[in-house]
Amino acid sequence: MENKRVILAVALSFVVLLGWQFLFPPQPQQPAPVEQQQVVKQNEAVKGPVSNQFPDPITTSSIVSAKGTKLKVETPLYSAVINSQGGLLENFKLKIYQETIEPNSPDVDMVGTDALNKAPMGLILNGIPTWTRGVWGYEGNDLSLDGDKIGTLIFRGDVEGFRIERRLTFHADNYLIDEDVRVLNVSNPSGQGRLAFTTATKSLSAEDDRYNPTRISWFGPEGLNQEDDREDLAKTGVEVTGDMSWGAIDSNFFILALLPDSNDVTIKGKVQDNIFRIAAEQTVSFDKGIERKLNCSYFFGPMDPTVMNKVPGDLSAAIDFGWFDIIAKPLTIALEWFNQYVHNYGISIILLTIAIKILFWPLSQKSYKSMEQMKRLQPMVAKLREKYGDDKERLNKESMQLYKTYNVNPAGGCLPMVLQIPVFFGLYKALLGTVALRHADFITYLPFTDIIWLADLSAKDPLYITPIVMGATMFLQQKMTPSAGDPTQQKIMMFLPLVFTFMFLNFPAGLVVYWLVNNVLSIAQQWIITRKVK
Q1: In the prediction, which pLDDT does 41 show?
Q2: CA distances from 412 to 88, 397, 422 (A)
């Protein structure tokens, strides 16, 4: 009986944890209240060159004005268009990733048409939007890069007494853009100023996507911090100052990051007109006649650890699985290892599930064996309850003596299960946030039909077949599990498959496949052990 209560507690803990994730996704970690970091409110109206504001939104026509020339950059990984009027980024399309799973779907554009109004990659100097207030020229031509080649475009402008040169270097083998900026104060009366590198993008995920929110992230001495509440970002925004390694707009799958080369920088983030914007601002001395040099890198690409590990500034820290990070990351590595041989992430998930089950086989075997032994003792426990029901202390003493006599551990059936909970949630986090699973197919069409089925393991099963079958396997497991003596507990345990099925209806198909396969393996293991015990 005690064993059943613990098992019930474990099962209910699963429901609570999964239900909490389903109903209340984890809120991002907030920055620590240290002197170097502060979150400040921003005025809703922006007028003039205020230090903590982006300049007023400008129209698309201002950005793609007639005096701007569109320069194209082609690499095996992406294609981009840079406008010579200030060096603005008009689009940045990832060739490996498409918007949908539909045939001929367009490549993912890391900018988006609506974001042009917010001037991606625009420089802000002393609050001045340099792309609108100045005369710009350029040096270089369209770039077509492959292998390990690099290419450079140079943009020069005169903006209200400042002479600015932007040197952008592109790499064929990664998503990094390096920028070298030189600013010469020719005639502006300002001796002290601020220069901000910026970028902007459309939302990288659906606004109501609780599993994959678009957020503002930054990384500094206090580690990774994130904010994904759109209302707060629209009304208040974020502003943090200190030794910031980077600031970014990201989702589970994609990231746009600014990596300033400075140990004293202010990262700002805001949502305006449903467009996410960030800036990395530095305070600079602009004495007349003295040229100042500043550097910043941009990363516009997938949340791929293989690629991001090669980027300086600990950008790979943006891939974070929360409490279970230490478990989730090795599991993603294992998943990739299997996939390099089978080239199907659905099969890779099955193989990983089998590997995990083998790893925990001794613990599971001990758990099932203990449960069977407890089942055999239930009639004796019932007699003890009849005899000592009014004497709790004596009942517990006699019950423990009974377990000792038959060498049975009352908690032996659930402790192995408890040890497996972190692994499950680690894999849960890994499957939710692995870009490799985005649009990864398993069984594209329902067998013997042309109906799209498991064509995207990062999305829910459109036919709800796998969660329903998963629920059925859970029900079968419950029927095979030694029943608790308390009828109320029995009803609760039998109700759990329905709860899990409901929660799993909208879970990513990859996670449901894992749970389903794990259930099938557990049923087989339980059947084998039951036969041996009998």
Answers
A1: 35
A2: 64, 18, 18
> 3-class DSSP state for residue 8?
helix
- Residue 192 tokens, joined: 């002290």
Phi, psi of 8 (to 5 degrees): -60, -40
What is the pLDDT confidence band of residue 487, given thresholds at 50, 70 and 90?
Answer: low
Exposed/middle/buried for 289, CB within 10 Å: 0-12, 13-18, 19+? exposed
User: How far is Cα 121 from Cα 85, in angstroms, rounded to an integer?
Assistant: 11
Would you place residue 506 in the very low, low, confident or very high pLDDT band (cuts 50, 70, 90)? confident
Please state which of the ranges 9-23, 132-146, 298-312 shows the lowest mean pLDDT.
Answer: 9-23
User: What tokens were used for 518?
Assistant: 């794990």
240 close to 250: Cβ distance less than 8 angstroms: no
CA distances from residue 7 to 425, 479, 488 in whole angstroms, order as listed: 18, 15, 14
Q: SS3 letters for 47-79?
A: CCCCCCCCCCCCCHHHHCCCCCCEEEEECCCEE
Of 59-63, 65-69, 399-403, 435-439, which has the strongest mean pLDDT?
435-439
Asked if 157 and 164 touch (Cβ cutoff 8 Å), the reply is: yes
CB 258 within 8 A of CB 280: yes
pLDDT tens-digit series, residues 103-143 = 899 999 999 888 988 999 999 999 999 998 888 999 999 99
For 114, which DSSP code? G
Q: Is the pLDDT of residue 428 over 70?
A: yes
In the beta sheet, which residues pair with residue 81? 72, 91
CA 205 to CA 207: how far, in whole Å? 6
Instruction: Give CA–CA dist 308/289, Å, rounded.
Output: 39
Residues 159, 129: Cα–Cα separation, whole Å: 9
34 touches 220 (CB < 8 A)? no
Amino acid at 270: K
Alpha helices (runs of H) in 321-391, residue ranges in sequence order: 325-342, 345-359, 361-388
Q: Tell me which residue of 323, 206, 317, 330 sits closest to 255, measured CA to CA.
A: 317
Residues 154, 155, 160, 163, Cα dihedral to 10°: 20
Tokens encoding 60: 């698309």
What average pLDDT is seen over the chain? 83
| Identity of the amino acid at 441 | D
Of 350, 439, 406, 435, nearest to 99 (Cα)?
439
Q: How many CB atoms sit inside 10 A of residue 85's CB?
A: 26
| DSSP assigned state of 304 | -
Enumerate domains of the chain plus CATH numbers: 2-20+333-533 (no CATH), 31-315 (2.70.98.90)
The percent of residues above 70 in pLDDT, for the chain, comes to 83
The encoded tokens of residue 205 equal 């995920």
